[in-house]
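To the wet lab folks,

You asked to see what we're planning to order before we commit. Fair enough. Below is the target structure as tokens, and below that is the sequence we designed to fit it. If anything looks off to you, flag it before the synthesis order goes out.
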């Protein structure tokens, strides 16, 4: 099919009926052109065409060009088209070949990479291209499928995939629907006079306006180019040299060339932009620039396109699309329409002004009536309030954490009490310093509730293709598994929040850690009441607590967060799961002997007779137990909470510890389960002591 000229194209068409072009000649310059057309034919597809001489090598791609490097889109090679087709838009009449509407999605130039000549690429069955369009930029590869050569299959099936470069995006972070042909091609502006509000007005609400807080800091125009980054302030000073972290992050935008308007901001201890913090950050030589972030609020130019003539709402969408998750650069939030409510929240945060901007406004130099400043009176009482708390729910304001981009933060996960996925993520972010040590280096099972606790859930043990490559994994095989599986390992806040964003409400780690997966570092007794009263759980726990104290075995109780309690006993290194299970069986049988009427070691719910199940069988390789501080998928957004033994009384109920109060409790009482992470007891000595104690009782 390669090099077949345009015969097949000509044969298929009646040029007295179709408006499609018949030919076209290459200019003779070295530039190669490409086009992506949306073809609403019998079946909607996208035609991806690449110039080869006077022709366009053509591929029909049902799902279009992927932006996500994890995707593989089928591309079926069709006949070469004439070069003039690169500009074709129109309606192919009914009854003609390819009948339907053809519109141009993007066009531009491209170059071949690996290999850099077409005949070799067709022989290899591998075409690498770097596109320079308005919408599509960066590298894609077409790879001929293995099946293409098989008998009975055509030679024309390829897979189209995005290479992981600066333009790559996740599937759930799609490129915005903005008309980029409305932008003009131009070199980036060298000098920009920043747009500013011409007037000061009272708070107002209007669906045609966007509202942003006015940042206290230093307004700069950021110019990004392959040869460097400039951060030019109003007085013409370039402050880039003082801000290496911001400069580094601006080099990672989804654009090689960009001009952004924004403010360099330093946050104070309450998370508010602060002039004092800004001066301190710039002035203190050892930490110079570290605490400063660039809050970008406008995008004026990207990769050869002047965007200043586009409506602000389109520039905002492109700004968000251009900034990936970066530590020191982010797209400033704006709210639409509700200016009065927004002014009130900004005042509550102790800030003093909001800027209103007309959503359809172009970017113009200097003072404009399409930007309006709204002074607000900061609420001094709120001065100690965290900005996040004032602006809304903690998880709501920031849509990113490092490489994690959050989705559906407003989705209600606990319908009875109204907590959202954003609340879950905010809790995990807050509690991470206490939770992460309990998760570190352990294979993890997830319990995912993508639609909250009343929706469908599923257990997931394997780190699948959905997992980004920065998430740590460990190959592990439980006693009941046929073969080892790659499990996720949660060793960072980023991973924890990424898992939470998947709807993983509770996390279930193993009781052993890499590299000693055969050796648990704690043992656990799980008191599971099912339908039995919680008071019975307390009675059994107290008996076990007394016994363990008598034999000088340190043990740490916690609520399971659901209906029961866990008693955790840290072990010295090197014991096996079997030894840990034996130890817990002795404890469990003792508890049942002491409380025959309310305790049982019967595994099956039917045989428990309404008694509390004293579960020691969980101490097995591949079994899991939720650690302290994990949230549970039960009404009330309760948390598995460490207890002091003197709290294990009839006043206790697991529903009293939720994502709302556990962080403050940990601040006040410290991490009561910290000792669980320390080397624990000599198990064989403990079993012997236990036997002696039980025999004497
Ligand atoms: Mn087509």
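Sequence we intend to order:
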């Amino acid at each position: 099919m390669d090099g077949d000229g345009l015969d097949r194209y000509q044969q298929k068409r009646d040029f007295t009926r179709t408006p499609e072009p018949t030919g076209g000649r290459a200019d003779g310059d070295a530039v190669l052109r490409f086009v992506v057309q949306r073809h609403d034919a019998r079946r909607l597809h996208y035609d991806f065409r690449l110039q080869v001489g006077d022709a366009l090598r053509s591929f029909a791609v049902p799902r279009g060009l992927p932006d996500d490097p994890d995707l593989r889109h089928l591309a079926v090679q069709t006949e070469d088209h004439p070069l003039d087709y690169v500009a074709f838009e129109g309606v192919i009449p009914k009854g003609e070949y390819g009948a339907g509407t053809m519109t141009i999605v993007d066009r531009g130039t491209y170059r071949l990479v690996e290999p850099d000549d077409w005949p070799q690429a067709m022989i290899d069955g591998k075409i690498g291209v770097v596109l320079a369009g308005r919408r599509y930029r960066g590298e894609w590869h077409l790879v001929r499928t293995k099946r293409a050569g098989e008998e009975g299959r055509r030679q024309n099936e390829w897979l189209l995939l995005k290479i992981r470069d600066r333009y790559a995006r996740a599937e759930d972070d799609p490129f915005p629907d903005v008309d980029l042909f409305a932008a003009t091609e131009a070199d980036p502006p060298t000098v920009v006079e920043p747009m500013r509000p011409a007037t000061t007005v009272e708070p107002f609400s209007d669906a045609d306006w966007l509202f942003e807080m006015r940042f206290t800091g230093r307004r700069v125009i950021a110019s990004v180019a392959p040869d460097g980054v400039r951060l030019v302030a109003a007085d013409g000073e370039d402050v880039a040299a003082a801000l290496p972290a911001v400069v580094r992050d601006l080099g990672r935008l989804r654009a090689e060339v960009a001009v952004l308007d924004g403010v360099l901001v330093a946050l104070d201890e309450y998370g508010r932009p602060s002039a004092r913090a800004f001066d301190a950050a710039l002035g203190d030589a050892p930490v110079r620039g570290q605490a400063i972030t660039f809050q970008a609020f406008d995008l004026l130019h990207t990769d050869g396109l002047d965007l200043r003539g586009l409506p602000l709402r389109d520039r905002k969408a492109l700004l968000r699309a251009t900034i990936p998750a970066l530590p020191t650069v982010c797209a400033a939030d704006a709210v639409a329409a509700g200016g009065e409510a927004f002014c009130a929240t900004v005042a509550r945060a102790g800030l003093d002004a909001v800027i209103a901007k007309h959503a359809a406004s172009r970017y113009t130099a200097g003072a404009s009536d399409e930007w309006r400043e709204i002074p607000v009176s900061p609420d001094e009482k709120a001065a100690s309030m965290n900005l996040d708390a004032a602006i809304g729910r903690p998880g709501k304001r920031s849509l990113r954490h490092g490489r994690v981009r959050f989705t559906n933060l407003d989705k209600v996960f606990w319908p009875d009490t109204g907590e959202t996925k954003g609340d879950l993520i905010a809790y995990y972010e807050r509690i991470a310093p206490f939770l992460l040590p309990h998760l570190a280096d352990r294979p993890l099972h997830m319990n995912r509730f993508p639609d909250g606790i009343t929706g469908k859930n599923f257990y997931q043990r394997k780190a699948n293709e959905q997992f980004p490559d920065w998430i740590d994994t460990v190959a592990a095989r439980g006693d009941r598994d046929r073969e080892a599986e790659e499990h996720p390992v949660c060793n960072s806040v980023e991973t924890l929040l990424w898992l939470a964003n998947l709807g993983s409400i509770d996390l279930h780690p193993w009781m052993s850690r890499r590299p000693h997966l055969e050796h648990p570092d704690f043992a656990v007794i799980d008191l599971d009441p099912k339908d039995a009263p919680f008071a019975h759980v307390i009675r059994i726990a107290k008996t076990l607590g007394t016994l363990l104290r008598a034999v000088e075995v340190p043990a740490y109780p916690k609520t399971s967060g659901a209906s029961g309690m866990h008693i955790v006993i840290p072990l010295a290194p090197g014991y096996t799961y079997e030894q840990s299970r034996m130890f817990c069986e002795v404890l469990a049988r003792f508890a049942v002997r002491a409380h025959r009427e309310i305790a049982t070691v019967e595994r099956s719910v039917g045989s428990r007779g309404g008694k509390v199940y004293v579960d020691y069988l969980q101490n097995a390789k591949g079994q899991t137990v939720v650690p302290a501080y994990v949230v549970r998928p039960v009404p009330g957004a309760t948390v598995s909470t460490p207890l002091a033994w003197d709290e294990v009384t009839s006043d206790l109920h697991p529903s009293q510890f939720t994502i709302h109060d556990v962080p403050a409790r940990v601040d006040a009482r410290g991490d009561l389960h910290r000792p669980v992470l320390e080397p624990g007891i000599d198990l064989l000595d403990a079993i012997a002591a236990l036997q002696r104690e039980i025999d004497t009782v």
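Structural context that might help your review: Confidence is low (pLDDT under 50) at residues 284-290, 383-397. The first helix runs from residue 7 to 12.

Thanks,
Computational group
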